[in-house]
Amino acid sequence: MTPALSYDKTYGSQHRWLLSSLLIGIVLLSLAPSLRLLIEALSDLTQGRQSPLWQVLNSASTWRALWHSLYTSGLGMLIALVLGSLFAFAITLTNVRGKTWLVFCFMLPMMIPPQVTALSWLQLFGPASPLLKSIGMAPPMGSPQPLYSAEGIALLLGIQSAPLVFLALRTSLLSLPRELIEAARISGAKQIQVWGHIILPVTRSGLIAGGAMAFISSLGNFGIPAMLGIPAGYYVLPTLIYQRMASFGTGVLAEMAALSLLIGLLALAGVALQQHLMGRSRFGLGGHSGRSHDFTLGRWRTLVTATLVGILLIILVAPLLALVVSSLVPAVGVPLNADTATLNAYAEVVGRQGATWRAVRNSLWLAGSAAVVLMLLSLPLAYRLQRLPDRWRGVVLSAIEIPYALPGVVLAIACILLFVRPLPIINVALYGTLGLIFVAYLARFLVVCVKPVAASLAQLDPSLEEAAQLAGAGPWRRLGGIILPLVAPALFAGGLLVFLLAVNELTVSALLWSAGNETLGVLIFNLDQGGESVLAAAVSVLVVIMVASLMLALSLLAPRLPKGVIPWQG
Amino acid sequence: MAGLNTEERNTSGLSAAGLSIDRVTKRFGEHVAVDELSLEIKPGEFVALLGPSGCGKTTMLRMLAGFESVNGGRIQLGSRTLASPETHVPPEQRDMAMVFQSYALWPHMSVADNVGYPIKLRGLRGTEYQQRVQQALALVELEAYAERMPQALSGGQRQRVALARCLVSDPSVVLLDEPLANLDRHLRATMEHSFRDFHQRTGATLVYVTHDQTEAMALADKIAVMKAGKLVQWGTPQTLYHEPRTAWVAGFIGQGSQLKVAAGSPGKLLEHATLMRGLNATESERTQAVLVRPEHIQIATQLPSAHQLTAQVENVIFRGERYELSLRLPSSETLLAYHRTAPKVGSQVAVSLDQGWCMEPDQ
Questions:
Q1: Considering all CA atoms of chain A, what is the largest pairwise distance in Å, rounded to the nearest integer?
Q2: A387: distance to nearest CA of chain B, Å?
Q3: DSSP character at residue A314
């Protein structure tokens, strides 16, 4: 019998009971969409060859899309590994200049919505690029857009997921105590041997974990293959589902459930592998509190710094510049100069009371209320979680992690299945309303909000609460008067992260939106598909500005948060 | 309940209550952390739970506070049962206060808010609240720091804020969990003084957990020495020093040497003559363990007389007011003695023992 259990039995039943029911309820709600999907995909297996799963597995387009998914994600992962490890090694282990800004800029692509990344790169290359036109370097009309290809998709997937590799590697590099390197040096190892014998082996699991994360994230990415692949007729699994749903509607739900199951299983296997490796990389280095090593670059310092800045100029600044240029021209294909520059697109976005403004309002409203609701849920949830035995805490965390780990398309299909019929008893139909997107966001981003709060609670000295308890404070009083003020920064950071992710979200809403219920992500996608790339660019520029300022706001909170809460601060 | 408490306190000063711990047992899985421990603590007594780390003293304290349930036995405060396998009064209803090892000051509240929190929960507001907080802060001489945040204070000041928070609600029992463990030597001496002062002024029942025997001896009225979850001895510091029950207690408290003699029985004091005779017996007859404190050893550099022993000086350490000698007896047992001057290492001295205390062997 563990002490926690015996404590449970003896007192405090009322608040414990309430918190426990909340916990169980949330776990069930997190699991419900996935379970519904599983049932749908497997239900008609008795029909043999007629069952949807069998049909899907026998269709050539499934296998083609699967191969496309694996190819683009695999290639993207390699690009991410190269970029991510270069930045991680250089920034963590050497004394390059301007580390904080390098990290911030390198992390920015992860937070920029994928369709915006795709749009900005499209504006950078190709015959219609306003930037190339303005500097007179545009290829002749009619020449192909090089990004409408598998390799184009892979390149952008790589850039978007490189920060994931960077983070995983940086974590394991930071836990590499300088004593390990110094011990090797004093034993007579040269710089190069230190790398081969110590640094790489110790950080290998971090590298593999980062690669796995980049692969999963690319596999579930919808925005990039949708913007670059659909015009070229190149479909990956998420875009295949989107295209089928767009063409045939809910009639093909059963088949789509089977397809979703396929990606879902692939992604979850990747998550399991990655968590296993991350767990192993942390193990064994515990107990060291040493500072990480700083290799002095000497005269190479400026060169290395310049290389990193150069890469950032290419992968971040140039596309964003192209985006800005595109948003300032009156029409596609017009070069930008003093005569043509216009703010018409922005005036259109902000001024016209049409679909554009409605989408902005929808997204802000959805993201804001999801953030508030999740913040309210996170504190009691994390508080109860803290008091669970380790094994159960792991189980619950995995359960609420699933809707976030699954590719957005899978969650969207699962939510449609769950809510396509009106809810029983209250008889409210969620399908086709903003409510459905809202519910999907709650399920998807719960873990994003809970994790910082849980980390902050774990750091809290238990005697702070015990002192209040002896002073006579009951459970609710302690939660409100002691715990809440102390974890408030983490709670706030969690809410901001949810807002940041939800406001740009495309994958889930791409399948769940309906006329009048567009989100910001869907809007950019639709504008670009409708040929209004100037307007799309203007919206995108506004989105990037919003993302960067939210990230800056979070960075300002960082000193008051536990380590690792803010993704771009190691 | 809050009103009743304050009224009672205002007329009677402080409401110290006796604690009765009756065969209390705590198990964590297979491990028995506290094993049938019984103590009777009188109202207003300053009690120390003393033992090496892992002996169960902190678990015992946390059971008193109510942070741990009990698996067997009973804890009573006055006539009220706080804990037994069937009942568990939650910590917030026990009317106790505690000084934590980490101080546990809430970082989001000022010093005054920290101190006032317990009485705020009891519904006190306005001038009475202000007054009580001021009084508590005055008692630990921190009035000037009321509006500071805890982070702006030094270790000793934080400790005193934690103390003030304890006394503001006039609890019937104050628990202290190794409160001096995080302080430097100089500060410890000052804080020991404030604890004694605090106890005298409030008259509260104090239970103090420590692994440091000098701290326990200096502060407590009575000490419970614990080992592996069991109570080894329960007595005043004087009793523990002069009459330790077992050889382990003797080794844990104060300095001294343990010799084997052929005289006496456990719990007996041996006088000079009996002791010297017992020491001179043959080795096989010498079975009784006896404790000889260094202050009961006389050293002479002249040749030994009939009732004295010869010993070789093995080591000499200067301790300021005296020298500490470690001597080797002919039986090859070692003896710790004090002397005004330093004999040469390797020289022979005459040793005379005034008295010795016979102990039980260790279990």
A1: 80
A2: 13
A3: I
Report the C-alpha gap between A388 and B329 in whole angstroms: 60
Rounded distance between C-alpha atoms, residue A472 and residue B94, angstroms: 8
Is position A6 within any domain?
no
> Is position A8 within any domain?
no
% of chain B at pLDDT higher than 90: 44
Domain final position from A312, A333, A354? A333
Least confident of A293-297, A366-370, A372-376: A293-297
Q: How far, CA to CA in Å, does A270 sit from each of A265, A277, A405, A503?
A: 9, 11, 10, 26
In the structure, what pLDDT confidence band is assigned to residue A55 with cuts at 50, 70 and 90? confident
Q: What is the pLDDT of residue B147?
A: 92
Would you say residue A449 has pLDDT above 60? yes
| Calpha distance A483→B306 (Å, rounded) | 74
C-alpha to C-alpha distances, A96 to A22, A89, A297, A524, nearest whole angstrom? 48, 11, 8, 37
CB A482 within 8 A of CB A357: no
pLDDT tens digit sequence for A75-111: 999 999 999 999 988 888 888 888 888 888 898 888 8
Q: How does DSSP classify residue A138?
A: P
Looking at the complex, report in whole angstroms how far the Cα of residue A466 sits from the nearest Cα belonging to chain B: 8
Helices in B122-246 by DSSP H: which ranges? 126-139, 155-167, 185-202, 213-219, 237-242
- Coil, helix or strand at residue A116: helix
Spell out which residues of chain B touch residue A474, defining contact as CB-CB under 8 Å.
92
Contact flag B106-A486 (C-beta cutoff 8 Å) = yes
The alpha-carbon gap from A12 to the nearest alpha carbon of chain B, in Å, equals 8
Q: Considering Cα of A60, then A62, then A64, then A70, what sign does the dihedral take?
A: negative
What pLDDT was estimated at residue B227? 93
Do A404 and A550 share a domain, yes or no? Answer: yes
Nearest to B351 by CA among B286, B297, B277: B297
Question: Do A6 and B100 make contact, defined as CB atoms within 8 angstroms?
Answer: no
Q: What average pLDDT is seen over chain B?
A: 87
Q: Strands (DSSP E) along B86-126, which ranges? A: 96-99
- Whole-angstrom CA distances from A362 to A370, A372, B241 are 12, 15, 78
- In which domain, by residue range, is B313 found? 255-358
Residue A162 sits at the vertex; the CA angle it makes with A406 and A71, to the nearest 5 degrees, is 65
Strand partners, B291: B258, B357
What value, to the nearest 5°, has the Cα angle with vertex A14 and ends B88 and B171? 45
Report the number of distinct structural domains present in chain B.
2
Q: What is the pLDDT of residues B216-267, one digit of tens each?
A: 998 999 999 999 999 999 999 999 999 999 999 998 888 899 999 988 889 8
Say yes or no to pLDDT of A462 above 90.
Answer: no
Residue at A355: amino acid letter:
A
> Which of B69, B104, B121 shows the shortest C-beta gap to A466?
B104
pLDDT surpassing 70 at residue B175? yes
Q: Which residue has the tokens 């776990």?
A: A27
Same domain membership, residue B155 and residue B119: yes
Q: Which two tokens stand for residue A516?
A: 């009048």
pLDDT tens across A313-355, in order? 999 998 998 888 888 888 777 777 777 778 878 887 777 657 7
pLDDT interval class at A2 (50, 70, 90): very low
Inter-chain residue contact A463 with B104, CB threshold 8 Å: yes
Arithmetic mean of pLDDT over chain A: 82
Nearest CA in chain A to B123: A472
CB A500 within 8 A of CB A550: yes
Contacts of B107 in chain A (CB under 8 A): 486
Please list the helix, strand and coil fractions of chain B in percent, rounded to the nearest 5, in that order. 35, 30, 35
- Give the span between the Cα atoms of A29 and A33, in whole angstroms: 8
CATH of the domain at B17: 3.40.50.300
Q: What span, in angstroms and rounded, lies between the C-alpha atoms of B60 and B69?
A: 10
